[in-house]
Every structure is written in C-alpha cells, then in structure tokens.
Amino acid sequence: MSRTTLIISPAPTANGDLHLGHIAGPFLAADVHTRYLRATGRNVLLATGFQDTSTYVVTTARRLGMTPKALVARSAEQIETTLAAVGVGVDGFTGDEDRFVKTVLGFMEQLHAAGKFELRTMTFPYSPATGEYLVDGYARGGCPLCLADGCAGLCESCGNPIAAGDLIDPKSTMNPDDPVELREAQVLVLPMERYRGRIRAHFAEHGKAMRPHMVQAIEEMLSRPLPDYPITYPISWGIPAPFQEVAGQAINPNAEPAAWSIYCAALSAERRGMKLAADDELWLAGAGTKVVYFLGFDNTYPFAVAAVAMLLASDGRYLLPEEFITNEFYELDNSKFSTSRGHVVWGRDLVAEVPRDLVRFHLAATSPENQRTDFSRLALARVTTSRLVEPWNRVADTVDRFTGRGSLPVSERSRAAAARIIERFAACYELDCFSLTRAAETLTEQLGRLARWAVRPGEEGDFCHEVDVVLRCAAPILIDLAGAALPETRIPVGTNRMTVTPVTLPRLTPWAG
C-alpha cells in the first residue's frame, strides 16, 4: 500500500461560524493540496473539526447571552456547513463526541502512567469576586515577550506561549472591572526542556516547507530553555482531568493537539473506507504516514512544539509530523476580522452571493501566505472578472469553434508545452514551495496565453489539448468548473496524448459586486 498523507487543519473554536479570514487561511490551502494529491494518484486524508473545550466558548457565550452548550451546538453546525459550502472536502470532521474524549484521556493517561508529567506550582491570575482562576480566554493583558495585547495561553503576534501568570497587567475578560490578584496552584505539566534537543533535530531534518515567519519563531523558541507546559488547569470548563493529584481540574485545551490529531486520522480513514486495527494505527512509528499541518501562525507552538514534545514523550511509539504550512491574518478593509464589532464577511454568505469558483480563486490570489493581505468586494469583482472570467470565456468560445469535428491531432510541440504547464502548477502545489497565490498567478498567465492564441489551421488539436491540461491543473481551485467540464480531474505526471476531442465548455458568470 502506498504512503498515506494525513493533512490536518486545526479545529476552530466552536464559538461562531467561519469568516473569510478562516477560509483564506488554512482551510482553502489544505483543501487545494488535498485535491492536488488525489488528482496525481496519491493517498490522502483531510481532517479538521471543531473544538468545544476552549475557554473562548465560555467567554463568547457570556457575551452573546447564551449557554456554552447552545453556542457549541450552533457553531458546530455552522462550521461544518460553511466548509462544505466553500468546497472544503473534509474526510473526518471531529466534534465533542465521547470517542474523542476517550482518545484524549487515553493518550494523557498513558503518558501520566509512564511518569512523563510532573506536579508543579504555577502562578495564575485569580478573581476574588468570582473565585476563579483566569487562564487562556479568561485573562487578557500584555505579552511578556513582544508586549502585544492579547489573551493568555498563546500570543497571536509572536506565537509564543504565554503563562497566564506572566501577563502584563492581567484583567478578567468577562469582568474587566473586577480586581485581579496572583495566586499559586499545583498543576500537572510536561517538562518541555527535556525534549528541546530532539525537537530541534526534528526540524533540522524536516519542516522544509515552513514559511519564514514560522522558521523565525521556531528558532527563537528553541534558542532558550522551554518553559513547562501545563497539561491541566485549575478550572472546570473542558475535559475533566482523571488524575488524583489534580482532582477537579480540566485538561488544558492547548495540550490536546497530539491526541486530537490521532483521533482525526482514525475518523478520516474510516470515512474513506479504510479498516484500522486501532485508532492510532496511522500514527504508529513505521506506519509510513506523512503528517502535514496547514495552520494559522498563532497555532505554531501547540501543534509544532508542544504536540511534537508529547509525541516524543511516547518513547518512540508515534511518528512525528513532517511539514507545517502557516499563514498570516487575512484582513477586511485593512482591519482584522472582528465578530464582536460586526466587521466580518461570513464564508457561507459570500458563496451564496458569488459563484464559488470566483470566491476560491480570489482567496487563492490574495492568500495571506507570508504577510497580512486584505479582502474587499471591489477587488473580488475586479480581479475575478479580468483575470479569470473574461479570459476563460474567450477560451471556451474558441474551443466551441472546433467541437463536432471529432478527434483532432496533438503535436509533439503541444505535448511538450503540456508537460511544462503541469510542471509549473506542480511547483505551486507540492509542499516544498506550496503557494496558492502563485497557483492563481500561473492560472492567470496560462488563461491569458490561451485567450491571445490566434489558432491557425492545424493547431486546433493543440489548442484544445492545452486548454484541457490547464483546466485539470486548475481543478483543485476551480472545483465547479472542472467538475462540469471534465469526466475526471486526474492530472497526468506527463502527457503523451496523440489526439483530443473538443467538447463544449461551461462559461463562468462574472460578479459585478
């Protein structure tokens, strides 16, 4: 059996629907890479889901005047529906089912029994008014490393973990006027420093696809001793910790990624018809699985450092993820998407208004790969019309002139051109240099070339052949056009077609905004 690639996008918090910032980040990229691998004959699974254990569920529910349970139920349906609406073909969609909780607890209990966790006294902000410790989404303040304002747990700006007790001027997010004091509590931690050398060695061998910001962050994080990573928190929200020494505490949701990823693999494999002997079969050392993460930059530490350390703590039982593709923030009118301020465009709303392929093309063309990029409706209308719709429709009009002629010959020159087209798209889709923006640029260039082609007698077959190859290479992005025009979307490794039979191609509908 050929090697399986497991592609994972971290589960969004179940505190709302997915806006374009989510879609343009990891989800579209993961979907496009998955579709490309399948089109080139490789085994691949794509997994995500939703996370209901985050404290942000509680804070958002409080702001909306809902119960956390009701918010989770509504958000879960919204997230899954929106992914389907924009064409993200997820195999395994995880939730809050008992099997997930069992997987997390089984993973944690295995490490606990092996003595990998240690009891430590840590300092946390504490609200005397509510009698609660303030962690992650419950506490807000300055990052002690980069000074940016944000919540505890992880810094969205520099990507480093932030111990709640290290926040500068911490405040309660739900009761910002309440006084806050620092108190100590004993929690279970993973002593991360034990694994720093092996994490560094892993990234020296793998991670070649990492983008510069993540490379910088990983080097910075591993250049100094790693702080202990809390496995449990002295709070009630989340999965109850089953350990006697921290009775009444919950599992830190940012400590779940390794176990959640194992569960992702099992669920995805089952839904693709694979038979597994055990839920962790695809993650076992020697399984041959290639694990790839598509994630926002702010998820670097929990997935690329803490999760790798937890997998290393299994003493060789599990393999390690090989590649990480990060993205920066996608903005709306030059400002961060903000649900609370109503500064947002929901993914499902946009594809209900604009043809889905146009949305996917524009998000690819403006993907926030290495820096923040911006969305505007005016740009969507202008870019998709000039770079996609108009040239494609001119190409389709030309093909129409040759339909009904039967089989047409394809020259050696055209076969060589097709091989180069495939190579140019592969250079965008393969992980070493993966780039949605360059894939969109390559598609624009090829459509422009074809639209300008004044087909001379004897070139009809060559023209139709190259149109077919370009559409196959564009299929991971233009899923509806390719689905309507092609009986199957396989991308050949090379091309040796001697003839082609032109068929009437569907047109794209422009969107005026």
Report on this structure.
- With 513 residues, the protein is of the alpha/beta class.
- The chain folds into two domains: 4-336, 3-Layer(aba) Sandwich (Rossmann fold); 355-367 and 376-500, Isoleucyl-tRNA Synthetase, Domain 1, CATH 1.10.730.10.
- The protein is built from 15 helices and 21 strands.
- The protein has helices at residues 20-39, 55-64, 68-85, 98-113, 196-205, 212-222, 257-271, 300-312, 347-353, 356-365, 377-400, 412-429, 436-452, 460-474, 479-485, and strands at 4-8, 43-49, 92-94, 118-127, 132-133, 139-142, 149-151, 153-154, 161-162, 168-172, 181-190, 229-230, 232-233, 250-251, 290-296, 323-327, 330-332, 335-336, 373-375, 408-409, 499-500.
- The protein has a five-stranded parallel sheet with strand order 3-2-1-15-16, sandwiched between helices.
- Helix 8 (300-312) links the parallel strand 15 (290-296) and strand 16 (323-327).
- The radius of gyration is 25 Å and the shape is elongated.
- The chain starts with a strand and ends in a 13-residue tail after the last strand.
Principal-axes geometry comes out as elongated
What is the CATH first-level class name of the largest domain? Answer: Alpha Beta
What's the architecture of the largest domain, going by CATH? 3-Layer(aba) Sandwich
Q: Would you tell me which CATH topology of the largest domain applies? A: Rossmann fold
Radius of gyration: 25 Å
Residue stretches low in confidence (pLDDT < 50, at least 5 long) are none
Q: State mean pLDDT (0 to 100 scale).
A: 96
Can you identify the CATH superfamily of the largest domain? Answer: HUPs
Number of strands: 21
- What distance separates the N and C termini? 48 Å
* Number of self-contained structural domains: 2
Strand content: 15-25%
Count of helical regions: 15
Q: Give me the secondary-structure category.
A: alpha/beta
